[in-house]
Each structure stands twice: as structure tokens, then as C-alpha cells.
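Ticket #4471: structure export looks truncated?
Reporter: QA, pipeline team
Priority: medium

Steps to reproduce: submit the single chain below to the structure queue and open the exported record.
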Amino acid sequence: MKIETERLILRPFSWEDIDDEFSIVGDSETMSFYAKPYTRDEVAKIVSKNIRTFKDSGYGLFSVIEKETGSYVGDCGITLQIIDGEEELEVGFRIRKECWGRGFAPEAARAMIQYGFEKLKLEKLYSYMAKDHHQSRRTAEKAGMTLEKEYRNPRNRDIITTVYSISNRDEQGSGGEG
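Actual output as written to the record:
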């Protein structure tokens, strides 16, 4: 299974993605808004969990591949997260720092939103990030999400966290591409 956009191919995680994913989530600059970068063992567990979740539920992290080069540029997907004490389905995205500023994150996020609404029949999706993570906030906004609330996140150094959301009704009403 794969999802194609104008410039990207998104496909569910596979075991072959561990090294590429580690090069992103193991990088301290890329992960500066997270509690800490991931170890290679943690990445293997994430890949394993997402392979299982995708088989069971149809969602999880997808590998983001640039069509033109075939290069692994990051991940994007729908995952179950604890957001302000509630379990919510979140559209998350992480892009290799060499590819920042090229619009890959919002392009992938829009594809995931469309997938969530059209294929999974979800009613609402969220994204959350540190309040001062302006790049991620812009990505959520470019993907059609709106700011819903802020809260202090005990799961990430007690930082102020912003929550964006989009509902299936918003998407239908906007005539957006998802």
C-alpha cells in the first residue's frame, strides 16, 4: 500500500527503514523539541510497533520518500497519542533536516489527513507540538488544521504545548485537498 502526492510517496514503515529513521530521530537538532533523541533500539521498537499497528488498525507512521530522488526524507502518519490526558489520533511528521523548508511536511500531512478521513473514516485528527516550535505549527496550519488549545505537557518536560485539529466536517466544508 502506498499514498502518492505530487512529490512524495508515503508507505507504511518496514524493517528496512530503521537506519534512515534513526538518522532523523537520533539527531539532536531534529529532536530539539522532544524530551530527547531516540536510540537505535528505540527506533527499532517504534518501527516494530508501527508495523503491527498498521496491520491491526490501518494507521501508523509512514516512510516519506521523495519521488524525484527516491530518498527517504522522513516520516508522517497517524498514531495514537496522549494529548492533554486524552487518547487521540494524531498526525505527526518529522523531516530530515537537509530537507527542511521544501514543503514536504505539509504535503505529507495533508495526504495523511485525507487518508484518515477517506479510508479510515475518522471524524477528527490532531497535531500537537511545543508552543515555540514554529515550523511544526506552520506545518499544521498549512495542512488545514486550526489551533484548538494549549496545555502544560507533563510528558515532555512540562512545556507549553499547542494542539491543532481538523475534523472531517471542516475538510468537507473547506473543499480542501485534505
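Status: closed, not a bug. The export was complete when the record was re-opened. Leaving a note from the reviewer for reference: Strands lie at 3-4, 8-12, 61-66, 72-83, 86-95, 124-130, 146-153, 159-167.
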